[in-house]
Amino acid sequence: MQRKTFILFLCLLALLSVTIPVAAQDESFVIGVSNGFVGSEWRTQMIQNIENVVAEFNEAGINLELVVESADVDVQGQIQQIQNLINRGVDAILVNPNDQNALNAVLEEATEAGIVVIAVDQEVAAQGVINVVIDQKEWAKISARWLAEQLGGEGDVVLIEGFVGHPANEARMEGVAEVFAEYPGINVVGRESGQWDQATGQQVMSDFLASLPNIDGVWTQDGMAQGALTAVQTANPAKWPVMVGEARAGYLHLWNSILQDNPDFVSIGVVNPPGIADAGVRVAVEILCGETVDESKFEGPFGNSLYVPIPEPITAENFEEVYATVADQPDSYTLDSFVTQSWADSFMVE
Q1: H or E stretch at 130
Q2: Which of 241, 223, 99 lies closest to 164 in space, CA to CA?
Q3: Could you tell me the strand order of the sheet in which 116-120 lies?
Q4: What is the pLDDT of residues 203-223, one digit of tens each?
């Protein structure tokens, strides 16, 4: 008990960025990461954010070792990733899940082994797992409602979704459906997967334009919107559809370019921050240092989610201000946001 109290004391000092004696810095934790999709710059930025916050903790005196399992794998492949981390004896696992339910057994095996398991970006129902996420359904509702209002509540709309079956995609599409149900004049005339890939999103949009000549609006997600807008720009139809965009530098570069010839062009980008993984690490460290999550603060469909606030979306009203911050960023960069350690601490039992 005394050792646990001492470790907690050291953790609290480090979390407060207080310098602690070298002799007190020997306690360490191993954090494993399971990422089953690497075909997205968003995931690359997510991993970088994890590495950055781990370095921050190490500098503050909490020694964290990082073990990363990251590869393009199916559900079985991600189960193996997590099993590898369990066998490695890690203290905590951060997982960005490929499936909402299929990982439950292996995730529960991890929690039963005393491992702190945090799902980031996408929510899972596994017992003992804590989701540290944005509300993906609400994220989608923001742009879906914007699109419906831009169209005056009526028109033919196409949807380009991410990977079917992935938790974030399913929550987002549910949110879109709920919003459009409020607007009986909105007709969904096409729906295809763009696989969270710009080239695929461009091809899907090109196919829509070829087969559906009177598209009024396009709802899509991050990772595909730049490709979809490129397809529209290339086809240059007599009437451009209203486009939902994304909060990535590449899309904003294209948006800015289009404004030079078409100052009436409007779009929206809702930020989906890769910094969500930073938040996951912060919550994990709180628990590893002996804190307990206040269960009354859980939200979400499974009652085990801690929601990170969704940043203000990018619209015509704030485009110039936001664009100035990313004009020199590479196309792959995603607008990001981060929480503080105080944010993570606010979910703990007082």
Answers
A1: strand 130-133
A2: 99
A3: 63-70, 28-35, 92-96, 116-120, 130-133, 305-307
A4: 999 999 999 989 999 999 999
pTM, 2 dp? 0.91
Phi, psi of 63 (to 5 degrees): -85, 115
Phi and psi, residue 243, nearest 5°? -110, 125
DSSP string, 298-314: -BTTTT-EEEPPPPPPB
Q: Do domains 2-134+273-308 and 136-268 have the same CATH topology?
A: yes
Q: Which fold has domain 136-268?
A: Rossmann fold (3.40.50)
Q: Which residue, among 146, 208, 139, 216, has the nearest Cα to 174 in the 3D structure?
A: 139
107 in Cβ contact with 290 (< 8 Å): no
Strand order in the sheet with 185-193: 185-193, 154-161, 217-220, 242-244, 267-268
CATH hierarchy code of domain 2-134+273-308: 3.40.50.2300
C-alpha 126/C-alpha 162 separation (Å) is: 23
Cβ neighbors of 176 (< 8 A, separation 6 or more) are 140, 141, 144, 159, 219
pLDDT tens string 265-292: 999 999 999 999 999 999 999 999 999 9
Nearest to 233 by CA among 265, 211, 187: 265
**Closest among 27, 32, 28, 29 to 87, alpha carbons compared:** 32
Distances, alpha carbon 284 to alpha carbons 74, 91, 280, 337, in Å: 26, 9, 6, 18
Cα distance between residue 204 and residue 227, in whole Å: 9
- 156 near 214, Cβ under 8 Å? yes
Domain spans of the chain, in order of start: 2-134+273-308, 136-268
